[in-house]
Amino acid sequence: MLKDKTIAFIGAGSMAEAMITGTIQADKLPSNQIIVTNHSNKERLQELTEKYGVRPVQREELPYHEIDFFILAMKPKGAADALRSIKNQVRPEQVVISVLAGITTQFMEEHLQEKQQVIRIMPNTSSMVQESATALTSGRHTKQENVEAIKDLLHCMGKVFVIKEEQMDLFTGIAGSGPAYFYYLMEHMESVGIQYGMAKEEVREIISQTVYGATKMVMEKGISPTILRENVTSPNGTTASGLKALADYNGGEAISQAIKHAAHRSEEISKELGDVNLNS
Prior knowledge:
Blueprint: E1 7-10, H1 14-25, E2 34-37, H2 42-52, E3 55-56, E4 69-72, H3 79-86, E5 95-98, H4 105-111, E6 117-122, E7 132-138, H5 144-155, E8 158-162, H6 168-176, H7 178-195, H8 200-221, H9 225-231, H10 238-248, H11 251-279
Parallel strand pairs: 1-2, 1-4, 2-3, 4-5, 5-6, 7-8
Antiparallel strand pairs: 6-7
């Protein structure tokens, strides 16, 4: 379904690179059918070209007639300008896709021609190792065949979850920002290991294997995290002591608040961009 398609990334940051990496590693799309452009950083385009063999193009030289899917991958504040720049060039049969926090399908539709096909997705940087949790929701005019094509593309990068637009901010808080929460936890675990005499490389491998194993238990055994936690917690044992410390220091509440704050920030971005649009 994808082999004859051409996609263009408008923006060349870490998320664009993660998606490019996953797509090429999965061998679903030849690298010469992936176009990358950004506002002005030619060195970054050259870097991606050398690493992945993609086609670097200046924004004003985009070959619109070749492109099937336009993927917005710049910072959210640049979305309106990017949409306006392509508005009169994009055809109805092409699809514009946002990977940006807070950029809704309605926002895209308002900045493009009437009845333009749009899709909003929220991957995370684990796309680079083909293990992203990615959400997808489509606009009012998007054909199902294009939704399926984008799902096929996203499956190259991990698992895909088709959700409602109103759930996207929460998904952003859980999965879009989620890897950073685990990296933060791992940083602190690593710091303690080093503090007590372990080599950095050794403790990092131990932590990585521990997180990987715990995740695999949830995914492959089909058992809830609550039951798995209870199963490994002996009364008055080491795990119980560690969990008590987490509770005493409000570890669970901290995680909940991280998700809520990230989701709220996604909502704020939508509102801020809407207000800017109204006043521009």
